[in-house]
Amino acid sequence: MSRFQLNLLTLCLAFVVITLGAFVRLSDAGLGCPDWPGCYGHLDVPTEAADVAAANARFSERPVEAPKAWKEMIHRYAAGALGLLILLMALAALRRSGDPHQQRVLPWVLLVLVIFQALLGMWTVTLLLKPLIVTAHLLGGMATFALLGWCLFRAGPLFAGWAATARRGLRVAAAAALVLLVGQIFLGAWTSTNYAALACPDFPTCQTYWWPPTDFSTAFTLWHGLGINYEYGILESTPRATIHWTHRLGAIVIAIVMLALAAGLWRAGRVDGRWRGLAGTLAAALALQVALGISVVEFHLPLSVAVAHNGGAALLLLTLVAINHAVWSARRHV
After folding, report:
1. What percentage of the chain reaches a pLDDT higher than 70?
2. I need a labelling partner for 300 at 20 to 30 A (CA). Which of 95, 145, 156, 325 fits?
3. Which of 158-162, 214-218, 225-229 is least confident?
4. CA proximity to 86, closest of 178, 25, 17
5. How far apart are CA 303 and CA 123, in angstroms?
6. Could you report the per-residue pLDDT of 257-273, keeping only the tens digit for each?
7. Do both 103 and 127 map to the same domain?
């Protein structure tokens, strides 16, 4: 398997893991297995009557719910497979150290990141879905996905030979859009982990207000202490609405910036038409994500749409990574 093929396979699996993680979280299966790394003391879900009875006796506060437990374990199996593929990438980097095109550092950064992700996964369970930990776990998954995308674009010919027509303003816009998207992903994760997705059940207003009552101090308190079960959230209505409303405002800002970036890419296409392909991809990914976000509210958080909204965020992130790679690679060719 070539370096490019291994990287592509790992990137695809990372997307699957992100999607599975969203499915587990949004179907309230984050504590489907109350221990880690196994499930009720097993490497799979206990199904035999004696095993289930023993598990229920050991974890009396959380009896076995096999459907939720299987969701959690399938996610863990997929995450473990992703870790092994990233380890292979790191070992391949050592073996091909003489290749001037081989990335030597980034695969090992990814390996450290995925190990830290495993720790966050453990703390997600042991700290009872603490929003800060769950949000960090989601951001770590997105960071892994983005870095794998950067590796892929560096390893393959996707942007080889692009004309150096990216002006400084376009590079600044691309970098700014990426930074703002990371902030918006944090807001989306904070909305989800605090169970605030339906805190504003109407659209475009929030609880019939164009600017609802807010409590930013409580809404964005990152640490509430230990020993609290955060399943289904602990915040009152106003802080939850504040989180949701802030996420909506962030969506407006990021949409404006991305549309400006798409316009800049389109103008760059007058010189090299390939930039217009990136402009169209960005506009399409943005439109899809906005439509999914509105649908989450309008249809009252259907699981499939909410999971797709998480996946759409990952695809939008990958698109911006591709654009940044293209504009900065173009600069290197000057």
Report:
1. 94
2. 145
3. 158-162
4. 17
5. 25
6. 999 999 999 998 887 78
7. yes
Domain boundary among the residues 111, 131, 156 is at: 156
φ/ψ (deg, to 5) at 300: 60, 55
Residues identified as active-site: 72
Domain boundary among 112, 139, 156: 156
| Alpha carbon separation from 170 to 13, 75, 268, 275, 328 (Å, rounded) | 31, 38, 9, 11, 10
Same domain, 110 and 217: no
Expressed as residue numbers, the domain containing 267 is: 164-334
Tally of structural domains, the chain:
2
Do 100 and 172 sit in the same domain of this protein?
no
Amino acid 37: pLDDT: 93
Q: Same domain, yes or no, for 176 and 127?
A: no
pLDDT averaged over every residue in the chain? 92
The pLDDT, as a whole number, for residue 332 is 44
Do 152 and 174 fall within a single domain?
no
- Owner of token pair 């990814």: 110
Helix spans in 96-167 (H): 106-126, 131-155
Q: What is the pLDDT of residues 132-169, one digit of tens each?
A: 999 999 999 999 999 999 999 887 667 665 545 567 78
Q: Taking Cα atoms as reference points, which of 288, 289, 268, 287 lies closest to residue 277? A: 268
Query: pLDDT tens digits for 308-331?
Result: 999 999 999 999 999 999 888 754
Taking CA atoms, 132 is separated from 12, 19, 124, 128, 157, in Å, by: 27, 19, 9, 11, 39
For residue 215, give both structure tokens.
Answer: 């409590």
pLDDT tier at 102, thresholds 50, 70, 90: low
More confidently predicted of 127 and 163: 127
Residue type for position 232: Y
**Pair of tokens at residue 260:** 């400006």
Give the integer Cα–Cα distance in Å for 130 and 229. Answer: 8
Question: Where do we find the tokens 């020993």?
Answer: 227
CA distance 214 to 205: 14
Give me 178's structure tokens. Answer: 């990426």
Q: Are residues 170 and 98 in the same domain?
A: no
